[in-house]
Structures are given as C-alpha cells and as structure tokens.
Design a protein that fits this description.
With 603 residues, this protein is an alpha+beta fold. It is 33% helix and 30% strand. The longest helix is centred in the first third of the chain and has 34 residues.
Length: 603
C-alpha cells in the first residue's frame, strides 16, 4: 500500500511537535536559552528521513493491520514523551525555586536522593515490563491466542485430515526430478543477465514453453548503481532456468519490457500495486507464468485476509498484466485454471501450518492451547526445513506444495505433512510410519564426504518420492563457494531406515547422470514387485561371473511351487545371511521382480 510510505513519513516527522511541546514545558519551568528557529526544521527533516526508510519496509502491510499498529504506537510514543517531559519539567521547577544559599548547598544531596528514588522506580518499571513480555502471560499469551486461532481455523479449511501412508507420495520419472532451488537459480541468473549492473528482483517457479522453470526477473540498470528510480524502475528481461538444470547450461535470456514486477520499487512492485486495489489483503508473492488463455506471460499473485485476532481467511488468486498492471482475472484457489500452478499462498500455508504443529496434542490432530506450557506433547511438530514449503512435480504435471513437519521433541522423526493440491489442502499424520525427517536425511546424505579445501557442502533440497514400495528422499549435494553452487553428488536416502545410495557427479558425468545411476542402484528399472510367501522346499548355491547365486524353490500357500533367483550383490548383507541360514522346510517370504529375481527378503 503506497499510502503507507507517506503516512509513516508524516508520523515520524510529527514527533517533532511532541519534542517542541516538551521543550516549551522545560523552558517555562526553568527559563534559559531557547533553541534557535533553525533547529526544529532539521529535526523534522531527520525524523522524516527515518520515517521514509521505515515506510519502505511496511509497504506490504495490509491497511487494517497498519492502522492498528500506527495508531497504537504513535499514541504510546506521545504519552511516553509528554509524560517524561512533564516529570522533567516538574523536577526543574523544584530546583529553580531554591534561591537561598543554604538550600542551594543542600540541593545536590537532596537531588541525589530524589534521583536515586526515581531511578529505582524506573528500574522497577523496566523489570515489570520485561516480566510481562517474557512470562507465559501477558503479551506472549495474547500471541499464543492469535496462533491458536490460526491453527483452529486451519481445521475448517482442510479438505481431508487423517493418517497417511506411503502411497501419498507418487513415483517420478528421474528425468523430470527437480534438483534446484530459488537460490541456485538466482546464482545462475546473476551469471546469465545481459547487464552486470542490473538487479535480479525475484526468482519464482513458473511454466514457460511447456516446461516447469525458475523465472528470474531482471531490472533495467539502476541509477547510481543501486537505485531503481525513474526509467530504471522497470523489468528488462527474464532468465529462464529449467528445474532439472543445476548448472545453467539450458538457461535462456528472454527480453521482457514490463512496468510492473516483484522486487521493483514503490508502486511498481506488483504486490504493492495489487494491495493498492485490495488494501486489506496480504500479498506475499507474485510469480510469472505462461498463460494459454491470454497467450502471454502474466503475473500471478496469491493473497489472503489476515484477521487481527489470528485466522487467515479468504485465500485468493489474481492475474495481472506485467506491462500495464491491469487486473485480468480473479479466482478462488480451487477454481483457478490448471495453468495457475501455485494457487495457495505460500505464507498463508506456512503461518497456519506452523501454528497447527505448535499446538498439536495427539496423533489424531487434537489441539491444546497449553501445549508447551510447561511441557510439549509427544506429537507437537515444527517445520522440517527452514525454507518450509517445498514444491514437487507430481503426475499429470501438477505442481504440489508439500510441507513436511518433524517432531518437536525428536527432530529426526517425520510427524505430519500438509499437501496443497489444485482442489484443496490435505493434512496427513505420518508418525505411525516411523519415517526420518528431511534434516536427518540430509545429515545422512553428507556423512562421510571428503573434506573440502574451500567452500562447504550444501543440501538445499530433500524431496520425498516413492520408488516402488519404498519412500526415498531425493537429495542433490552441492559445493557452495563464493555465491555459486557446483553439483557434487546425488543421494537417495530411504526414509524408513536411513539406507543411503550416493553417486558422484564427477564419476557419472553430471548431476542428471548421477540421478539415473542412483535410481539404477535401487532397482528403478523394476516395473513389477511380487511378494512370495510360503515354505522353502529347495535351495542351490553356485557362482556366476564371480558372484554368488542362490536358487530358491518355494511352495506358496496355495500349493504352487515357484522358483526365484537371489543375486547376492543386489541384496543387503542381512538379507544374504538370512537366505544362507534357511533350510528346506523353513518358512520364507521374499519380494521378486517380473523376472523372479529377489529384491528383498522379508522373512
């Protein structure tokens, strides 16, 4: 809301009037030299500059919250300033009436007593304020109430809430796996922009030429090297980076002359422009994507209404023309067309989700206002990654927001997931599956890597997908140095038991090749998994090409006899030991592929 800039500047400058009133009281209490006429304009100018700086940071605050904060804080500052001035003037007046020499001699001792007494009162007041702010009553209790209202409101928004299983997470073609984040795309955009002076103003996911990409917006070269003013306050081009490209070899520069964009200054920021039309809504993000309906790149903003008492209501999607700033369409999130790939506001999900996790009391998702005071429930949760929500490509080209939560008391355990899909928001409890959290999976992926002479290993991404009947975290590992990310390894970490398969980009010829090599190691080529359960009636061991083979003859529960081949090099050591100790007549259960090759030993 652009008006917030001018109002904030004026409120700060108006503090000059408070100071003038105090100065007048002090002069009246004890006549003396007055400040020159030139002093107050300088104070007003200085405060106005502070207000302008402050106003630039509240441009995205919705009007009703801005009004509550501005009026409350300005009134508080006025009361404190005038009150302090009144006390000080009263003290000066007492000192000025002491005309007698004897009284004047005793004044320093008396003033010291008065000063000590007043200092004690001030210290006591400060202690009381700190107690109110820090204790689990007072303002924190009000803050908890606001968060609890958000968590409770989320329950009414969810389309489905219940226990989940591994089938929630689909399989993905490894060729389509996302291996980049906005920070990686930003580092690529900084290298690819046509003018070194131009600023990369935003990086978001969007569709371009039928492919999911990171779209980075680039400004005109700024005035004086850093100020987006006048003709500089426009978009010049976009950098398009496919989500599968971690090095920028497929990145392209596309000219885009536009007057509005996220990250531009003042009302040229599309979010500020949107809030000028909808002043009570919170616009947290804006991204470019290709619209087949309008046959051009358009801006999508997601927004919501923030109730001062907590609930985050009425999420909406708006479509804007980046050239003119015109509003092209408005939708409810579940009613938006398919080309609107991110329809649920990211901050709306993160605020409501984190509040829900904080007050979660049971595995059945009951909420308790007093959770954490003084003890946390075993089922309380917190976002599993600092970045929070992750976007994953699911079947049929749907971009899904996946928000993973880890247990608050045991961060290694995955507790629940919030999934934002086209038709609604879903919440599933996962604690009964005993899955590890993304942070734990990242630690496993980096364990044992060789030391680096410079830079550090970075794992900015851990996406959860199913491979066959197992859940794996997909974790690209980069070397971060000097603001750049270099692909180094790719790891698949099984979410049930920390099994890690890690491949080297250097050895495989690139990150994409490392992904395919890791998939091959977890038998991604298997298109069918069959469970055989029955009695072992025969076993024969032999060596082929230096590798041990175990030929199994199994009588199934229905009486059918089948044969399966166990290749020792493909199995875990404990599975091999289990097979070697089996004798005819023992019960056995194995998982095989369509060629009857053993993949796993269950019993």
């Amino acid at each position: 809301m652009l008006a917030a800039l001018y109002i904030t500047t004026g409120l700060w400058a108006s503090y000059t009037a408070d100071l003038m009133l105090v100065a007048r009281k002090l002069v009246a209490a004890r006549p003396g030299p007055r400040l020159g006429w030139w002093f107050w304009p300088l104070v007003a100018a200085f405060l106005g500059l502070l207000g302008f700086w402050h106003g630039c940071h509240v441009l995205l605050m919705p009007a009703h919250l801005y009004a509550i904060n501005a009026i409350g804080l300005r009134a508080l500052v006025f009361i404190i300033t005038i009150g302090a001035g009144h006390v000080l003037a009263k003290e000066l007046a007492k000192r000025s009436v002491k005309a007698e020499e004897g009284a004047a001699a005793r004044a320093p001792r008396r003033l010291r007593k008065i000063s000590l007494k007043k200092a004690g009162k001030v210290a006591l007041a400060i202690v009381l304020v700190l107690v109110i702010l820090e204790a689990p009553v007072g303002l924190p209790l009000l803050g908890r109430w606001v968060k609890f209202n958000r968590a409770t409101h989320l329950l009414g928004v969810l389309k489905v809430m219940g226990p989940g299983d591994i089938t929630l997470f689909p399989e993905i073609d490894p060729e389509q796996l996302r291996v980049t984040t906005s920070r990686i795309a930003l580092s690529i955009a900084e290298m690819k922009k046509t003018s070194a002076a131009s600023l990369v103003t935003s990086v978001h996911l969007g569709f371009y030429e039928g492919e999911l990409c990171w779209i980075a917006t680039v400004s005109e070269p700024p005035a004086f090297g850093r100020f987006l003013l006048g003709a500089s306050n426009r978009l010049k081009e976009i950098i398009v980076v496919p989500i599968t490209d971690a090095t920028g070899e497929r990145a392209s520069v596309v000219p885009l002359r536009a007057g509005y964009g996220e990250g531009l200054w003042f009302d040229k920021d599309i979010r500020v422009h949107a809030q000028d039309l909808f002043p009570t809504r919170t616009f947290s993000r804006a991204y470019l994507t290709w619209s087949p309906e309008f046959n051009k790149l358009v801006y999508i903003t997601t927004s919501y209404y923030e109730d001062p008492l907590g609930p985050l209501k009425d999420p909406m999607v708006h479509v804007w023309d980046p050239q003119t700033g015109a509003l092209l369409a408005s939708y409810r999130p579940e009613e938006a067309p398919d080309w609107v790939i991110q329809r649920w506001d990211e901050r709306w999900l993160e605020l409501a989700g984190s509040a829900f996790g904080e007050f979660r009391w049971t595995a059945e998702n009951d909420l308790n206002f007093w959770n954490g005071l003084p003890y946390y429930s075993d089922r309380s949760a917190e976002p599993a990654e600092p970045e929070g929500l992750r976007y994953q490509l699911w079947p049929n080209g749907e971009l899904v927001g996946v928000y993973l939560f880890q247990n608050k008391r045991n961060p290694s355990l995955l507790e629940l997931v919030i999934i934002a899909r086209r038709d609604g928001v879903y919440l599933y409890s996962l604690d009964h599956l005993a899955l590890i959290s993304p942070s734990e999976a990242k630690a496993v992926a980096k364990a044992g890597l060789p030391a680096l002479p410079s830079g550090r290993y970075s794992t900015p991404l851990a996406l959860l997908y199913r491979i066959g009947q197992e859940l794996y975290y997909h974790i690209p590992i980069f070397i971060y140095s000097g603001g750049h990310y270099t692909p180094a390894y790719f790891a698949l970490v099984r979410a049930t038991d920390r099994r890690c398969i890690r491949t080297s980009c250097a050895e495989e010829g690139g990150l994409r090749e490392a992904v395919l090599a890791a998939y091959a190691q977890v038998k991604r080529v298997v298109v069918e998994r069959i469970e055989l359960r029955g009695t072992l009636v025969g076993k024969h061991e032999y060596v082929e090409g230096g590798n041990t083979r175990i030929w199994l003859e199994i009588r199934l529960e229905n009486g059918t006899v089948v044969h399966a081949l166990a290749k020792v090099e493909l199995l875990e050591p404990e599975d091999v030991y289990l097979l070697l100790t089996k004798e005819p007549g023992d019960p056995i259960a194995v998982v095989v592929d369509a060629r009857m090759v053993v993949l796993d030993v269950l019993e």
